[in-house]
Structures are given as C-alpha cells and as structure tokens.
C-alpha cells in the first residue's frame, strides 16, 4: 500500500491532540487530515460534505459533548466507511466491550510510548494493505476466501504464541518492533539504544533474535572508522 492513510484525530485536549498528530506524522504511511476537539466537530469532519476522505479515526472516549462510544455509534449509524482506533485513558471493561461492538479495531491506553503507538498503527496499516490487495486481486466481485480474511485479521493481533528466548520480554520486544517498523532507515544497536532506552548489549540481543526469525535483515555498515558496524532493517 503506497497511498497515505488519512487520519482524523478526535481529542479535546489541544496539547494531547498536537502530540498525537506529531506521533502520526512520524509513522510511515499515515497523514493527519484533521483534528476535532468534540464529538460533533468530528462527525461534521467525517461527513461527505467535508471532503476529507478520512480512512481512520483516532478517537478519545472522553469528549466534552458526548462519549467516544456515542461518536462511534453515530459513525456506524451513518454507514461512514472509516475505521476507528480508540486512544484513551478509559479502562472500564464495559467501555472496551461497547467500543468493540461499534467496530473499534484497536484500543490504545494512555499513557503510551511512541514505539507502542507506532506498532499499533503499523499493524493497522498492514491490515488495510491486506484487504486492499486481496480485493484488488479478485476484481469487481469483491469476494475473498477464508485464508485472505484470516491473514488480514492476524495483522491486528500481536503474535504471542511462540515463547521468547530466556531473558527477552514481550514488552521490550514490542517497543523495539514498533520502533523498527516506524522507521525506513536501517539502525545500529547503538542507535536503537538511544531510541528505546535499553543498553547496547540488550539492543543487540533483541536485534539478533529478530534476525533469527527473519523479521529483520542484518548488514555491515561501512564508512565508519574501525571495524564495520552492523545495521538492522525491518523486513516488510
């Protein structure tokens, strides 16, 4: 998928909305087309008359005029073809269940790191790319098979079936994967240390693990004094 996914941020706190917009612009494949500070403003920006062509909404659950759940309900009632990702501090199970029932695809709890945020968006982008590719492959019939559906939905789920080697944690791995997926550049262990706040030795262990699982490619980096440094790049 080469087309940028257009994002509408719905967040009543201006500083937080600005921070979320900055995060989105750092994730490859996304662009911010609007920021709404209330539910009604968001619904207006999603209307066909607004002509923003929003693909995905980053939706807070606590808004001054209505809940995020109500916004999601109205989006579905209006048959608007947009996806919804909740970005909120609300942790109540009832809210999470209601969000899912109205088609919320990801639920990101505040506060969060950029790496965690980037990973969620990268997974959503992979999901969108899977569906776009599969629908294009079948032409105008718009029909896909079970395997295509499974592949698309699996993109939204964190892979947790395979046990990690001793000493590696899922949380740290998730942060590192999120960072690697968010950058187009190859990185060294030292550069990863600065980005994710782990030691150089720890960074190298995770990078070598990801290399062994073929999620990351490894090459020597020339042009630096002394012994060539290794650099790692996420494999899409």
How would you describe the overall organization of this protein?
The protein has 236 residues and is an alpha/beta fold. The strands form two sheets. The chain has a five-stranded parallel beta sheet with strand order 2-1-3-4-5, with helices on both faces. The protein has helices at 14-26, 39-46, 68-77, 93-101, 114-137, 146-154, 170-182, 189-196, 200-212, and strands at 5-10, 30-36, 56-59, 83-88, 104-109, 216-221, 229-234. The protein is built from nine helices and seven strands; from the N terminus they run βαβαβαβαβαααααββ. Strand 6 (216-221) and strand 7 form a beta hairpin. Residues 217-236 are annotated as: Disordered. Residues 6-125 form the Response regulatory domain. Keywords: Activator, Cytoplasm, DNA-binding, Phosphoprotein, Transcription, Transcription regulation, Two-component regulatory system.
Largest sheet entry: 5 strands, parallel
Query: Which CATH class of the largest domain applies here?
Result: Alpha Beta
Number of helices: 9
Q: Decide which structural class fits the backbone.
A: alpha/beta
- Span between termini: 11 Å
Can you give the mean pLDDT?
Answer: 85
CATH topology of the largest domain: Rossmann fold
Helix content: 40-55%
The name of the CATH superfamily of the largest domain reads: Response regulator
Any idea how many domains? Answer: 2
Q: Quote the beta fraction.
A: 15-25%
Report the CATH architecture of the largest domain. Answer: 3-Layer(aba) Sandwich
**Widest sheet: strand ordering:** 2-1-3-4-5
How many DSSP-defined strands?
7
The Cα radius of gyration reads 19 Å
How would you spell out the order of helices and strands? EHEHEHEHEHHHHHEE
Runs with pLDDT <50, length 5+? 134-141
């Amino acid at each position: 998928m080469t087309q940028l996914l257009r994002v509408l941020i719905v967040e009543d706190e201006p500083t937080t909305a600005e921070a979320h917009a900055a995060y989105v612009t750092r994730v490859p494949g996304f662009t911010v087309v609007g920021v709404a500070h209330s539910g009604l403003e968001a619904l207006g920006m999603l209307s066909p008359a607004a002509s923003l062509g929003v693909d995905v909404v980053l939706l807070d659950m606590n808004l001054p005029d209505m809940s995020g759940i109500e916004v999601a309900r109205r989006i579905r009632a209006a048959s608007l073809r947009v996806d919804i990702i909740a970005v909120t501090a609300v942790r109540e199970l009832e809210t999470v269940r209601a969000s899912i029932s109205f088609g919320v695809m990801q639920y990101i709890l505040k506060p969060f790191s950029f790496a965690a945020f980037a990973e969620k968006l990268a997974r959503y982008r992979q999901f969108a790319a899977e569906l776009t590719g599969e629908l294009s492959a079948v032409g105008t019939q718009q029909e896909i098979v079970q395997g295509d559906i499974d592949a698309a939905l699996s993109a939204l789920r964190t892979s947790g079936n395979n046990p990690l080697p001793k000493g590696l944690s899922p949380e740290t791995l998730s942060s590192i994967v999120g960072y690697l997926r968010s950058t187009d550049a190859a990185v060294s262990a030292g550069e990863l240390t600065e980005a994710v706040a782990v030691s150089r030795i720890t960074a190298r262990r995770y990078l070598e693990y990801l290399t062994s699982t073929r999620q990351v490619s490894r090459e020597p980096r020339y042009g630096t004094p002394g012994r060539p440094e290794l650099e790692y790049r996420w494999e899409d």
